[in-house]
Write the structure tokens for this entry.
Amino acid sequence: MIVIGIDPGLTGAIAAECSSRGLLDVADLPTCSNGLETGRMLRWIDPRALCQLLRDWSQRFDFGQDHVQAVIERPIAMPNQQISTAASNFDSLGVIRGVLASKGVDARLITPGAWKRYYRIGTDKDESLRVARNLYPAAPIKLKKHHNRAEAILIGRFELRTQA
């Protein structure tokens, strides 16, 4: 089984993990300009680039040989959060779901609390990095800014461990 774990958002990440081969790859979610020159939401998820990334992974890791399932962390609108931030988060979720559906990949949502409880971590991004680095020392998550990659890895691994 191959699981695609996704920490959505404009600084989010995507990871592919296999039940028999371990971590296959992890990448930042591709973004592009949306054509606006002013305002808060100037970028969005690039659906074409995301399609290409999934196509490349499918060929490299032979997705046809395994069941492929995606799990996406559900965005949660927070009190006092900018409306544009919430809109951007839910726009990202919609684009990601659409791209996955176009590739025939089933996706489900998971709350941040569910997978974080599994690893006994809180909201500190350093904790996610620490746990992911312990699981996959060779993963490209060496810098503090790679916390979203670490979370995508942990989301995918959570799915492999609890649903497979």
Summary: The domain at 2-163 is CATH 3.30.420.10 (Nucleotidyltransferase; domain 5).
